[in-house]
Amino acid sequence: MTFVSRLKALAKKSTATLAAVATAATISVVGAGTASAAGHRDWLRPDATGTCDWDGVQFWVQRCDVWSPANGRNITVQIQPSQRGGNAALYLLDGARAPETYNAWAVDARAMEKFVNNNITLVMPVGGAGTFYTDWAGPQGFLGGPTPKWETFLTQELPAYLQAHFGVNPNNNSIGGLSMGATAAMNLAANHPAKFRQVLSYSGYLTTAVPGAFAIMGLVMWDVAQLNVNNMYGSIMSPRRAELDPYTNLEGLRGKDVYVSAASGIWGPAEIGQPIQGLMVGSALEASANASTRYWEPKARAMGLNVTSNYPLIGIHNWPQWDYQLAITHDRILDVMNAW
Asked: What is the reported pTM?
């Protein structure tokens, strides 16, 4: 470590210590209207750069840089420790336009407020726009670039970090996501059945290998992050297209609690006053997710999977819909994970 890097690390540790003192002094403000902070929550964990930081979203969320050997870089994760040291976790995956600075579940659905009084660790990875949170076969861009290895990070590297520093059992997890993140959550749960006891798909695309889906995915991925869809699978004819399609990737979901939802695409009170162009796009995306999920569900039931579905009559592809879904599945998550 160079002299300059040592100074940077020391500065971060000093900042983190001051933040911890300030948080402890103002904990009644941070957790206003909630139970007092438990000892499991009120100290900063170590991370790849020294120490995690208190996140601006508050409610004891820590911002941790987790080293990923598979990706060759640190990946930021927003983490709210369980209230009383419980060993269950809820992973929440973002959509196709996942920001590089925060997980939208923390900002747009205030997930940490919903679970602030519960004994479950919230795990909200930051970034991954357009990647479907899988291990890519090649570089993400048409002209090269890094090769994303999100599946390895989420199922091997991050669980090891969470076990070491937050007391999370690597095999005691629930996973949910919206849109792209919902598709990914279903695949991750199916591909790693020992790690996830529950999976929740909010407005997911669960039949990605049907005619036309590949072309649409390619356009979306290029639009959001200039990604090459062929490099995610390996080629247009790669068998990974079927392996990463929730419609054909069902066997690993046996014995799990599975929740799927998608609204009709019809505008409701939450859409009043919104720009018409955004509403049109939101309607089309949600109607597509609805059709995809409804097509997936009969096959899942025929296989004997434990599926609960919810198809609201009103709602489009936006945060009012996903905030609502997280709220109504809150108790379900805690019941399955025994994390009240």
From this structure: 0.88
